[in-house]
């Protein structure tokens, strides 16, 4: 997992802004090498990224685990139910909404 791609995506998602990735980062996420990152490739990467951030392996992210990539406001925006932690569902919902916003062609891919 390349941390830089994840950090760009989670920070942008938490701010509800489309993500910006360079070509090298896109190439790393493009598992089938078809020149585009599709929804399933992005979701698989983000699922892996979540697992990597979940240092205590409790199935959720606390503010300490993401302090390097999210400020307090970004964390709160991702913690939809305000329980003080970000579940995998909250995390994936946020980053996949960002994917949808970045999918300018509406075809389920980023190119």
TrEMBL record:
Q: Where is the signal peptide?
A: none
- What InterPro entries does the record point to? EF-hand-dom_pair (IPR011992), EF_Hand_1_Ca_BS (IPR018247), EF_hand_dom (IPR002048)
Q: What molecular function does GO assign, one term?
A: calcium ion binding
Q: In this protein, which residues make up the domain named EF-hand?
A: 41-76
Going by the entry's taxonomy, the superkingdom of the source organism is recorded as Bacteria
* Pfam assignment, any one: EF-hand_5
Put simply, this protein is called Ca2+-binding EF-hand superfamily protein
